[in-house]
Amino acid sequence: MSNAAAMAxxxxxxxxxxxxxxxxxxxxxxxxxVWLVLVLLITIFGEWLPIVDDPNERxxxxxxxxxxxxxxxxxxxxxxxxxxxxxxxxxxSLRVAAIGTAVGIGVGGTLGLLAGFYRGWVDSIxxxxxxxxxxxxxxxxVIFIVAVxxxxxxxxxxxxxxxxxxxxxxxxxxxxxxxxEREYVKAAEVVGAKRLSIxxxxxxxxxxxxxxxxxxxxxxxxxxxESSLSFLGLSVEAPTITWGSIIAEGRISFxxxxxxxxxxxxxxxxxxxxxxxxxxxxLKRYDIRESAL
Amino acid sequence: xxxxxxxxxxxxxxxxxxxATPRGTLRAVDGVSFSLDKQEAxxxxxxxxxxxxxxARALINILAGNGTRTGTIRIGGRDIDQLTKTxxxxxxxxxxxxxxxxxxxxxxxxxxxxxxxxxxxxYHLGASKADANxxxxxxxxxxxxxxxxxxxxxYPHELSxxxxxxxxxxxxxxxxxxLLIADEPTTALDxxxxxxxxxxxxxxxxxxxxxxxxxxxxxxxxxxxxxRIGVMYAGRLLEQAASEEIFTNMRHPYTEALMQSIPDTSxxxxxxxxxxxxxxxxxxxxxxxxxxxxxxxxxxxxxxxxKPQLELxxxxxxxxxxxxxxxxxxxxxLATNLAAGETAAGLVLDDELEGVS
Amino acid sequence: xxxxxxxxxxALLAAWVVRVAGARFAVKRLGGAVxxxxxxxxxxxxxxxxxxxxxxxxxxxxxASDEAVAECTSERGLDDSVVEQYTGWVxxxxxxxxxxxxxxxxxxxxxxLEDRAPRTAWLFxxxxxxxxxxxxxxxxxxxxxxxxxxxxxxxWILPVAIAALLGVAVVGGWGIxxxxxxxxxxxxxxxxxxxxxPSGDSTVNTGAFVLLSIPVFVLGETLRYFFAIKxxxxxxxxxxxxxxxxxxxxxxxxxxxxxxxxxxxxxxLRLLRADMVQNLQQDFVAVAxxxxxxxxxxxxxxxxxxxxxxxxxxxxxxxAQLVNGAIxxxxxxxxxxVGSYLIEAVARRxxxxxxxxxxxxxxxxVVTNTVIDVVYTTVDPRVxxxxxx
Lengths: 293, 357, 389
Known about the structure:
Chain B is an alpha/beta fold and 357 residues long. Chain B has 14 helices and 12 strands. In chain B, strand 4 and strand 5 form a beta hairpin. In chain B, helix 4 packs across helix 5, helix 5 packs across helix 7 and helix 7 runs parallel beside helix 8. The longest helix of chain B has 17 residues. The N terminus and C terminus of chain B are likely disordered. Chain C starts with a helix and ends with a helix. Chains in contact: A-B, A-C, B-C.
């Protein structure tokens, strides 16, 4: 059925001269990128922006007020400006997500690359690490680590790293296995190139797209995990603010402060959506199939 | 058994197939007309992308969702667009059946051979499970598969490529079709099994008095197995005649080019095969004139501007060319081009290659 | 008793696997699972030792007597080596002694589980059912539509959507309507508008993608706000078991199950759709069409069947998602299940209970996945063929 379509498609591709008509631009992708950049810029430079006040400044006149011109996202329990809290909270949430992903890529990526490339006992050990870590559901693992140690930023980041490492290691390992099977890698082997140079010159560049695509998806997952943790009151303790903790605070007196739940939630949702969308588009762009990994 | 009276099994009139693609409309089949008598075999020959597979799929009504078909197709005298809903239900797969290119992918990997063989028998003929199974064994024996009964319980991956293609053929024969379409039935197979499968198809069609459409990119495959041959290029049938007529008396430069690109054992062993220069036209924006003009050694100014229509010449021979091979017009065109060193379409003629032919 | 039944079932499974797929395969798969189980549970025990200070003091509170702390320390094996502590714990768990919580008169954990596990189990079951009822038909439909050319937006869609939003706004307030617009409709419309009008496929796919990106707690809070606070359609009174009547049971659980089901459904949906689209492009589908089989037959018999096996594997992996979601959902709805017990235990610093719970969940997860994996490999002829190579 779709076979003929695929065939027609292939014919069309063949028939179009090089440099011919292009695919229509993907606007959504750029919307997502712009949103992420905007969120990043505001959270990083928010302190120096006139729109952001002191997130902990109490104001007896504006307790639990809805959104207004002065307080875009309304005010919190003690009259603090919720928008400022979202900006400052975003700093923690996004930092945790960024560090988690970076460590995940660094450690998990290396492990996966080595396992997929050298196989043998390295692979067995890495696979065991992956399987053991993944056998505890993500949120439960993070809760367990934070509960056993304490609710400081360091341990939250640590827990999140433990979450990211096996997830990325698994993907990178699978991708490396696939790449290592390709002709040009075999060719390099036959020519007698050094193993290490094959790894860096042939395998790594071809694993990179997968790694980067999944980095976006992983950042989204970590962001959700951290927010869920703060929502449950188990992440970094007050007075440190995160997106999840604002939502958790808002839900206590839901009737009066629905804006404290929904507006940060929309920001979180759009950020996660953007991350997922960018990751998904990159996967499509590089024709990586999740099911094949 | 006495053969049925002759009459058209299949009539195709001005068949056009378009695909809506993100880049625009792609005309995969462009005004194809031909007819096929009962028990006759026609070979459709063309390079990949010439639209021959799309033609096959159009005939059995399995075009993709973005494909639209216009023109008339009459199978056994019945217009397939005029069938009632109930007629249509048991028409494709019963009156007409198809053998696909790649036996490795034509069989569902998670269903047993038996289930795949019997499903159409049970669906179309309403046979009981036991009857369908007996019929399936019979079919497998017909295509010379040893220990047929045991095969029914096997999965496709347990069979070799040749065996699988036999199963695919058996599947096509399940409801005793009167017209069989074989779409490059041996392309995906080992060279050693290709001939046996082709001969099997040939034998079966004679035994069961079927009409056959044999689609191939290899003129040699069609020779001797098809009564008539049609040459397809860029969605059009450029030449159509009886098999031997095509081989001895080809008219279209494309047919000639195809012949020259086939190795022939009668030639001296060092003869260079002549590739066809250039590549097929963009079907999204096809040329105004003859689709082959840009690659043709005979091309003149009129080839670029005017699309040649099919012409009937003696011995029931159809061709669409302004300057046919083997006629004074063709010779003259070639001589002009050789003298100029290039054709009207700007194709540089390589003297060295010319010298070989 | 339960343990005996589980062991017998396991032995039967192992015997079946050995018979169908051979002993080597069975040892490889089942042995690997046992190894992972040992390491995971050992790891959780090891984590107990990472509690800053003495876990017994922290758990009992600083006011606890020295004897109580000493008793706790020896009972938990904290004065032994890790290995002894671990073997002691395994021995206890296998004999059905899951330890106890310190508050509430040393309530045994097994009693807590007996009380609460069924609730979470029902929650899982219903949410899986909801997820599959949402995902399977939509997934099949999306896959079926995927081969078709994109069509223009139907003219009625916009007025209907606006009317629906107005309805929501009147019933639920403008806040929720605004949220819905921003979070669901705008992305879908922008996405489809730019892609040249939606096909059924891209609409379903976009919806799934958006749903996938909504954190469970956001979804849960939103639905709770709408159904339980703004309207009285769900009572936040807690769980009623089956024996209190079907109506009471369902009405006490439907909203948490819905939230959890919606949260996990896009995973199934996207997977089923992708798998079926891939299958639909296979030649055997064209062959079946050429045989004149009906669309229904092809879709259900040829395309769905290989995909259900994939769905089964994902169902196993999705248990992790379910556990994550259940913790959050039970917290949101004050649903007294295992998840909310876990949060309570963490808040009360009941390390031993938390460790046992985490280990049990890991065991459940590994066992389920191994069973699914083994069944899958044994049943699917393609995988078996790969394995034999």
